[in-house]
Every structure is written in structure tokens, then in C-alpha cells.
Predict the structure.
Amino acid sequence: MLFRVLVDTYERLEATTSRLEMADILAEFFREAEPEVLRKAIYLTQGQLYPDFYPQKLGMADKLLLRTLAFVTGMKESAIQELQLKEGDLGVVAERIFQGKRQTTLFSEPLTFQRVYSALERVSVSEGGGSQDAKMKQLAEVLNDASPVEAKYISRIVTGKMRLGVAAMTVIDALAIAFATKEERDSVERAFNISSDLGMVAEVLTRSGLEGVKNIHVTVGNPIRVMLAERMSSPVDILERMGGSCAFEYKYDGVRVQAHIGGGKVTLYSRRLEDLTGQFPDVVRSLSAAFKGTTAIMEGECVPVDLNTGEFLPFQEVSHRRGRKHGLEEAMEDYPVRLCLFDLLFLDGQDMTEAPYLRRRSALQSCVETSEGVRLSEMRVLDDENGVQAFFMEALRDGCEGLMAKSIGTESQYRAGNRGFLWIKYKKEYRSEMNDTVDLVVVGAFAGRGRRKGFYGALLMATYNETEDRFETVSKLGSGFDDAMLAELPPRLERHRVPERHHLVSSNIQADFWFEPGLVLEVLGAEITVSPTHTAAFGKLRKDAGLAIRFPRFTGKVRDDKGPREATTSEELLLMYGRQLKKVDE
Ligand code: ATP
């Protein structure tokens, strides 16, 4: 097939914004294309060469394309750059400068689809030293024979910016129009949702018809499009929607992964189906050890844990450090990542996506031996509002965002690629961002673990309650200490050491060491949250909770100029919370 045929289709697609019209235009093209071409054309339409989850990506940098265009047309790079600034779209720029070029070039051979696709494949695999030149040569070779409008789309494809606005669902509509009935569209969509490979589904549809599509099964190595949740803001409404009772799980605040285990290998995919395996060698190791079966697809949330405070950490915090002082190995030692598993989609040759929630959950429980690195999400089946509220507070106490409610009815399958009310998120409604530092008093400490063995691993920090003349805890502080400060802390704190909790300190937490309030440190946190664990301003906002500073970090400043009673007060913290409060769940 000539590349021109696809390009004509793209031109027609670009001229419309109507999804219905787009589907008709695509269907027309699909009917004409051979199965193999159809598959590849679908990837190209999305600005890709392969499905999302393949590691090879095109994504050529604009700069390199610019150089290639200059090379092919003989124009100055700076002149093309100027045009790009004006137009914004390198595809349009390519088309314009090719119109000029055409007058000087002799007749060239029309491009076939296959030739363009193969050239793009070679562009994507050129790696290593001199790869930029190699990419440029491969691309120039095909651009030399391109017409202006072909150059426009080759430029867009190679930079991954198609701008056609064709969503996967529109492609599915088109496939149904071309090869199936309206009723059969669901089977095509389901095949896509469990394989994440629209090109493959299309090829099977043209070669083997709908029967072939129905035979596409969940397969280890083909990520399944993730199931998503709706949201609601009251436990009563959630319970009502769920028919009176449902499962509630902790909602962890980390990175969702879909783990594919098989053939002695573990592959981790992100929510957007990118391969994340290389980023989590520790998760791969602990999951291989924990899984007792042969093949499986599981889902869970990866959350880094601070060994020294025992609390979850935000991901940015960890990645930020990886590049700096510590290497990956050290970061893994200090902040090991825990995988909290919440679903099982495939087990030992069996598709589990159609099984109801409780069956999937019990199968998950029996195929995994939990460890420090792999746990199952905390889960409780509940049917009353108070129970849900209590579990919600426990989730917050343990550093989670809230709860995920999950239907336990017979219809509670894993709906790949769908957002619906079978899962409902119930998040902490309010969060207050911190943008000012606070001065907190050290009232306790915890013994160090890992590389902090022999030092304090974390400190228990408090605000001052002026009215009652007491020190109320707000957080465990483990971040922001360099080695020198870690070594300095024990002698500095020695003179404040007391054998048990000081009578001026209110704490629900049992520390390993206690101090008379004395040393004041400057701390910056990410946010102030409601917490049932900490005692600062307890009962002021909610009768059963105080305030906590989440993800606190020592700024490096010891406030020797301040006595403990000059530290930030609980009242001030409450005001800060109120001032910066914003509804997050919108
Ligand atoms: P969404 O995923 O709904 O588009 P989002 O990316 O903003 O929205 P959230 O609204 O925070 O994410 O909630 C959904 C995410 O919560 C899931 O994609 C998953 O990563 C995470 N999660 C944490 N704990 C669980 C759990 N127990 N069950 C399911 N998902 C969980």
C-alpha cells in the first residue's frame, strides 16, 4: 500500500472534530488495508510504532528532526527554527519547507507504507555512540522521497505528536463499523482492555473475525488496562450505593504497579502501562520470593517506607535523593519500597478478572506469603458508618490517603479499562499545604536502623500548647539530617535525657528515648493533616484527632536562639492549617 493512502486518511481526520465522522473515515481505511498494514497503521495513528507497553519508543527530539529537515532541504537550521517558533508544529513547518523544496527536486519514487514503517523502526533502534547521526540518516533517506504532506506526517509520527485527536475508543468504534455489528463492539473493546494492544486486536479481527477476537485471553506479558474508581464523599452514601455492605481497603499513596510473573521473570507495568521493572529491583526480588504459584498478574501500590520512622514516604522524596548523595542501592536500603497488593487478575493459567472480588482476594491471600516487602492491602468488610469512620482514621494514622470501597456483589468483576462504582474512593477531604517553616521541640527519639544504627533514627517533635503549658507531638522527624548532624545529636540531647516521658509532654506514641523539652529545630513539612496519632491541638478540629505535619524535613537550622516555650504553638499550627486549607478532592 502507498503511504499516501494513510496520509490522505490523516488529512481527512484532521479536518474534522466529530468522533462519529472520525470513526467513519477510519473504517473506510480499515476495510482497504491488509491485516499487517492495519495493525501498524493503528500504532502510527497514535504516534507510536508499537503498543504502549513495548520498551522501544520513537520520540525523536525536535532538535534532531530540525537538523534532519535542514539536511534534506538544504535550508538553514536557524531559518527552520524561526518558522517553528511561528507555527509551533514541526509537521506544518516540514510541509511548508517541502513545498519549496519540491520545485528543485527531480521526480522521486512514491513511498510505500512498509518503507516508511521500516525506516521509522530503524530510527527507533539506533542507539549508542553516533546514534544521532544514524537516526538522522535513516530519516533523511525516507524524507528525501516524501511529498510535502507526507513529510508533515512523518515529522509528526517521529516526534510522537500526531495531533489527530483519535482516541483508542474511536479506533474501536471504527473497527466495529468495518468488521462487526454494533452489538459486537463490546467484544472488541474487551479484547483491547485485557491486552492493551489495539493493533493486535485489529489484525486478529481481520484475519479470524469476531471468533478470533473472543479467543484473545488475558496473557502474562500483556498488561491489562487498569480498573478505576469513582469517588464519593460520605460513608453513608458509599454503603448505600454498595447495597449496604462492601469491602474497604486502605488507599495507599504511592505508585500503582501491575506485576506480571511467569517464566521465572517479574515485569512491572505502570498505570499507563509503561515498563517500570528497572526502577524497582527490590520489589521484583521480594515479589519473586513471596509468590508461591507459577504464573500470575497482580496489582498493588508501591510505597517507600522510612526504616527509621516506620512511616510511608512520598515518592518524590525518595527519587530526589537517589540522584544525589546516595546511590540506588543505598536509597533502597534506607527507603525500601513496600508493595501493598490489592488485586489478582490471573493465576496459574486462569483468568481471574471475571471472578467476583472476594474470590480474587482469597486467591491472592493464598498465593502470596507476605513479608516486609510484600503485604496485602489492609481490608475489612463493613456495613456501618461508624465502622467505616474508625477504619478511615486508622488509614490516616498509618499514612494512607483514605479508603477504597470495593463491591463484593456477584457482579464485582475486575472491569479492565473502566471507571465505575464497583470501586469508590473515599479520600481525606482536606489537606493543608505547608509553605512556611515551623520551630518544633524535640521530646523523644527512636533508635536508628539500617545505616543509622547506633544513632538516633528519628526524633519525636512537638508544638507548644500555651494554654495548658504542655508540649504536644506533631510528627516523627527522620529526614534532612546529614551525617555530621546525626553524629552531633546524641551529645547535644544528652543533657535533656529523662528516663520516661516528661510530665509536660502529651504523647500517644511510645518513644525509645525521652527528653525534657529543650532543643528546638526548624522543620518544613509538605502538609498539615488531621491525625488520630498526634496530640497537637487534639480535639480542636475533630473530637478524636489532633494535627500532624506530614513528610517533615529538618532544614539544617538548630534554633539555639529559642527556648522550648518560644517554639511554634499548637494554636499557630491550627491557624496555619486553616489558612492553607484547600479542598483536594476536586
Ligand atoms: P484515578 O486513578 O481514579 O484516575 P488518581 O490517579 O488521581 O485517580 P486517586 O484518585 O488517588 O488516583 O485513586 C486511585 C488510585 O489509588 C489507584 O489508581 C491506585 O493507584 C491507588 N490505590 C491505592 N490503594 C489502593 C487500593 N487498595 N485499591 C485500589 N487502588 C488503590
